[in-house]
Amino acid sequence: MSKINAAITGLGGWVPEDVLTNHDLEKMVETNDEWIVTRTGISERHILKVEGAGTSYIAVKAIKEVLAKTNTDPAEIELIICCTTTPDFVFPATANLIAAEIGCVNAWGYDLQAACSGFLYGLSTGAQFIETGKHKKVLVVGADKMSSIINYKDRATCIIFGDGGGVALLEPNFEGLGIQDFKLHSDGNGAPYLHMKAGGSRKPTSHETIDAEEHYVFQEGATVFKVAVTNMSDVASQLMERNNITSEDLAFLVPHQANRRIIEAVALRLNVPLEKVLININRYGNTTNGTIPLCLWDYEKNFKKGDKMVLAAFGGGFTWGALYMKWAY
After folding, report:
1. Cα–chain-centroid distance for residue 254?
2. Of 177, 201, 222, which residue is a domain's last?
3. pLDDT tens string 14-61
4. Domain holding 237: CATH number?
5. Which of 34, 41, 225, 233 is 20 to 30 A from 255 via CA?
6. Helical H segments across the chain, by residue range
7. Domain check: are 115 and 39 in the same one?
8. So which residues are the catalytic ones?
């Protein structure tokens, strides 16, 4: 029997209609367009303003697209992995809400939280269910409503993040295409540098935590920048070496869209020319779990069957990793 690989067979993506530009932010905090673009590469980001809508709203929009594109019946979906830092609720899982909304009556699902590395963790996990033959159709969602945990008085973070997300349909492949290898890491010692101070079981919500504005993203930018560049480039390099891939062999590098300077620094360390690097941070900002699926979705028409790609990410806490795949369609 031929080896089973898990391959992406379809992509969906969605961002809200409302756009928050750098010029809009100039009216909210002490900043300006030139400063933001120079330091982050971001010109605008999308914000979900639909009343009562959470991350599941974004995910459902993206999933409906991929199901239509691939002519897949929702009842055929067996598993939904929702990679998010901003679930609709503490419980139930956002994946379960998505399944009910879409009509995935035969699917089970769960939420996966690995900050900005979540989508890579999700692809790697979903691939195991395909490779073992346990499932034939798995949806891996990467989506976040980051505006729900951003302090728009904090110019260090409010300029970076946006809302949006995407989804990949994973199915078996017998041609040697699809996900080939991955390398994932985590280090909880990085938690002080990028986290949310309150709202969890260690420091539950109270009047005091709300008054102290502790329910927003906190980031020590300089430390995160340095560690992100080192860890993303190192893990991608190790994965490429393990699979005998050179930068010349790569069709595309798909990095997490945290900051354009981070992306460029990682590409430089890997000796990958920028024309091979997928970048859309200028239009969406950092959508956390949504950046890599949105990149794949944006550039889907540029891919050819057999293209070799490396996906790389770094997230708060810290988490990081890389995944190597051969495009399957």
Report:
1. 11
2. 177
3. 999 999 999 999 999 999 999 999 999 999 999 999 999 999 999 999
4. 3.40.47.10
5. 34
6. 22-26, 33-40, 55-69, 94-102, 118-131, 155-158, 207-211, 221-242, 260-270, 281-284, 291-299
7. yes
8. 116, 256, 286
